[in-house]
């Protein structure tokens, strides 16, 4: 099981559902709990992390 963070105020680009996206930082994925769509999440190269 991985730690997931709820992404408040965002819509799924596929099903347009509001407040159903979750970020799994260990796998580097954003997942829609409504339709199951997933997307890779990765930082830009050269971006400063604070």
How would you explain this protein's 3D organization?
By secondary structure, the protein is mostly beta strands. It has no helices and 4 strands. Strand 2 and strand 3 form a beta hairpin. The protein is elongated, with a radius of gyration of 12 Å. The chain starts with a strand and ends in a 10-residue tail after the last strand. The mean pLDDT is 83.
Sheet-strand content, in percent, reads 25-35%
Radius of gyration: 12 Å
Report, as a whole number of angstroms, the end-to-end distance. Answer: 26 Å
Report the mean per-residue pLDDT as an integer: 83
Q: Quick one: how many beta strands?
A: 4
Q: Can you summarize the main beta sheet? A: 4 strands, antiparallel
Secondary-structure class: mainly beta
- Biggest sheet, strands in spatial order? 1-2-3-4
* Spans of at least 5 consecutive residues with low confidence: none
- SSE order: EEEE
The shape is: elongated
Helicity range: under 10%
Number of helices: 0
């Amino acid at each position: 099981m991985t730690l997931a963070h709820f992404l408040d105020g965002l819509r799924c680009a596929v099903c347009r559902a509001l407040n159903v996206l979750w970020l799994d930082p260990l796998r580097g994925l954003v997942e829609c709990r409504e339709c199951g769509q997933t997307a890779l999440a990765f930082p830009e190269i050269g971006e400063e992390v604070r």
